[in-house]
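Researcher: I'd like a structural prediction for the single chain below. Treat it as a standalone chain; there are no partners to consider.
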Amino acid sequence: MKGTTNSVRIIGLLFVVFSFVAASSRAGKGQGLGEQTSQSGQTEAGVGATTARAAAVGQADGTGNPALGGRRPLYRLNRSDVVTLSFSISPEFDQTLTIQPDGYIMLKDAGAVFAQGLTLEELQRAVDKAYTGYLHNPLAAVALKEFEHPYFIAGGEVGRPGKYELRADLTLIQAIEIAGGFTHQAKHSQVLLFRRVNDGIFETHVFNLKSMLKKKNLGEIAELQPGDLIFVPQNVVSKIQPFLTRPALDMYISSTQF
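Model: Treating it as a single chain, here is the predicted structure.
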């Protein structure tokens, strides 16, 4: 009887121990799951924040990156662009104006308004402001009538030096083909690309197209931007400055070619 009692006590003690271990294990697992959920929550928050930042960068405000859901930048007016102004209430003030070399347009009876670099909507607000107090509720409608199409210039040892419209995405080698390809005297290993930084400064890029074509390394061939100037020399150009002024650029490309 005594032995039976001891056995019961031992079994009861083991049951308590196993219960304690099981409870501890469940607590540990519960704590671990809680940490995992917490870490997962932090990760999801991080992804959400990144998505929000990407949406902010790509928002359709006229300057967003199309690849991120935004739209292409709105066109900004340039010198020699022609705009029309229409006034629904005062049609006698309808005008067709050319943006002058200094960037201004001359409004009828309202004087000069700076237009270069503005979008059509911004110019409309500027025109309305200029006529406020002169016309009751001007409500000008602004439209772009004529503008300079995007272009590139190719000079030097190409078959047909000249100015060409940039109608689609083009690489440097494609642009050279449009300009008649290389001449027999062309220095393929030192093709110069001049890219406008501002009205008076150009940045210089040098491409070894001979090596790129030989290695079929076409991924490094630059894509053109509007206003780019390509020059293919006949001989090696020993001194190439990273930036050039317009007069210095005329050493490479003569305006009389175009």
